[in-house]
Amino acid sequence: MKYLNLVALATAVLLVTGCTNSTLSKQELQEQIKQKEQLGKVLFFDKNLSKNRSQACATCHNPERGFVDDRDNGIKAMASMGDNKKSLGDRQAPSAAYAMFSPKFHYDKKSDQYIGGQFWDGREGTLAGQAGGPPTNPIEMGMPSKKAVVDRLKENPYYIETFKNIYGEDIFLSNEKAYTAMTDSIEKFEQTKEFAPFDSKYDRFLRGEYDLTPLEDLGRSLFFSNANNSCANCHLNKPEDSEGETFTNYEYHNIGTPINHELRAKNGVKDIDKGLLANPEVTDKKHLGKHKVPTLRNVAVTGPYMHNGVFKDLRTVVEFYDKYNNKERKINPETGKPWAEPEVEETISLDDLKAKKQNDRKIDALVAFMKLLTDKRYEHLLEEE
């Protein structure tokens, strides 16, 4: 599905209903949500909301590629380039697919873990909060202020009328309120089925619509077996083979990811990535270098991997995990050299990484299982991998 003319289309077809009072009926509320989803969709693809009018949400969350940034950016898609065509980040843009299921950022006393939120460090509690970050980030969309973003919105008659219809006639009297309304609509769009169809071969298998190959079946058994490996420690949120599984527990862990020196040579970053400790709500140094456990949905088509894009191939990632339990797994297959040292060593989740060593067939099987988690619309991309 193509989205290039959404803004022009939306400008021509104005939404004509909307209500903001607290007496909405269920039907009216559903209609208002649909309006917000439509508005959010237009906003998601609007490059005019960046300083040089060259970058939209969809630039770094491409719906044709699993909602990640698949641009080369001069660094093999390891991180995103900003609207100024110069700035390079130090982390990958996480996939926006299935992000709606991440709970609000919070500390869970029972597990002694921070859970949920958005971004790799959970610094925004909600999708709306996340949507509000990039437009005014100087190394991303580069707008100087929320007012500047709202001024861009007011350039478009569609936005003026639609915002007023949905959020009230006075919505543009406050730049803060108008900006919040923008992020609210983007959030509503990101909460649609378009971002989380649950129609992969694995989902079809659960519904009796797909038969696993022997290798896929072995991978499934290994993935769910705590006696064999540690995948389920962090990448399960529900009981085995539950429908609606997002394949992340939304916790934060340090798995010993090495520095991406190739990326750092281009972006000039020299500081350690503090991970969760970069979140203003987190002060305990035991969280240094921990990053949010990502969903495995579409993982086979959204490389490169890790928060900094340091690994190109999904099989390399599985071998990297196996090195903690397999003394024979000494060499990074992508470099032909020993695995690089972790960026932050003192907080590695060694207990969660404990598992039996895996042979090559088992690693192939785990990769085959993870390929099953690819949304139907992206299955053609597996042939390109």
Q: Would you mind describing this structure in some detail?
A:
The strands form three sheets. This protein has a two-stranded antiparallel ribbon. α2 (26-44) packs antiparallel against α6, α9 (214-224) crosses α14 and α12 packs across α14 (360-371). Mean pLDDT is 93; it is low at 1-21. It folds into two domains: 6-195, Cytochrome c-like domain (Cytochrome Bc1 Complex, Chain D, domain 2); 201-382, Cytochrome c-like domain (Cytochrome Bc1 Complex, Chain D, domain 2). 33% of the residues lie in helices and 4% in strands. The protein contains 15 helices and six strands. The protein is mainly alpha-helical. The longest helix has 19 residues, at 26-44. The protein is globular and about 65 Å long. A hairpin with a 4-residue loop joins β5 (331-332) and β6. The chain starts with 5 loop residues before the first helix and ends with a helix.
**Alpha carbon gyration radius:** 22 Å
The tally of beta strands, per DSSP, is: 6
Poorly predicted spans: 1-21
The total count of helices amounts to: 15
List keywords for this structure.
single chain; 385 residues; mainly alpha; Cytochrome Bc1 Complex, Chain D, domain 2; 2 domains; two-stranded antiparallel sheet; two-stranded antiparallel ribbon; 15 helices; globular
Short description:
Helix content is 33%, strand content 4%.
List the helices and strands and how they pair.
Elements: H1 6-12, H2 26-44, H3 57-60, E1 106-108, E2 113-115, H4 127-131, H5 146-153, H6 157-167, H7 175-190, H8 201-206, H9 214-224, H10 231-234, E3 252-253, H11 261-267, E4 291-292, H12 314-322, E5 331-332, E6 337-338, H13 350-353, H14 360-371, H15 379-382
Antiparallel strand pairs: 1-2, 3-4, 5-6
Helix pairs in contact: 2-6, 2-7, 5-7, 9-14, 12-14
